[in-house]
Amino acid sequence: xxxxETIRNPARRRAPEPPAREPAGPRLRRSVALVGMMGSGKxxxxxxxxxxxxxxxxxxxxxxxxxxxxxxxxIFARDGEPFFRDREAEVIARLLAGPPxxxxxxxxxxxxxxxxxxxxxxxxxxxxxxxxxxxxxxxRQKDSRPLLRTPDPRGTLAQxxxxxxxxxxxxxxxxxxxxGFSIEQTADRALAVLATRPDILETT
Length: 204
What we know:
With 204 residues, the chain is an alpha/beta fold. Helix content is 45%, strand content 13%. It has a single domain (28-195), classed as P-loop containing nucleotide triphosphate hydrolases (Rossmann fold, 3-Layer(aba) Sandwich). A 5-stranded parallel β-sheet has the order 3-4-2-5-6. It is globular. The termini are far apart. Mg(2+) binds at residue 43.
């Protein structure tokens, strides 16, 4: 009727829109083992990367020390390097047998074919590639590196670097660690590299 108010049917009102879901973050599908020289930042970057991905961070050196109730230098001095490498291989295999995680390995771990094979079965190796000068700057003040307890530690580091880099180059993935880069910046680079491997990191 003219002049009358129009009464709307409440049943025809549009239901409120459901709240928008937050986009899911990246999901680690398989484990990532950080490999590289002493001082390349495997522990620090590994912790940052694991936190970003909400997965466990594992450290093979820390696990060895916990199992042996001794530090790495003490194990080297007491039992020798071959004994240490055997225990290292056992620990890496055990840690990789669990759910997807970020694993920091000792500098010499990737030199052993058995460890490379274990990492490949579980996921992928990510090499933190740092120049010799940067490595020396990071390790020169520390006394926790048994392989550098020589009359010429920098020369020893250079020799180890030359021996190991060709093997590190076998890693499926690589991230450059630059002087002046923060841990978070290097972790950003690592995430970008992992995103190129959807079998390792699911981003959608």
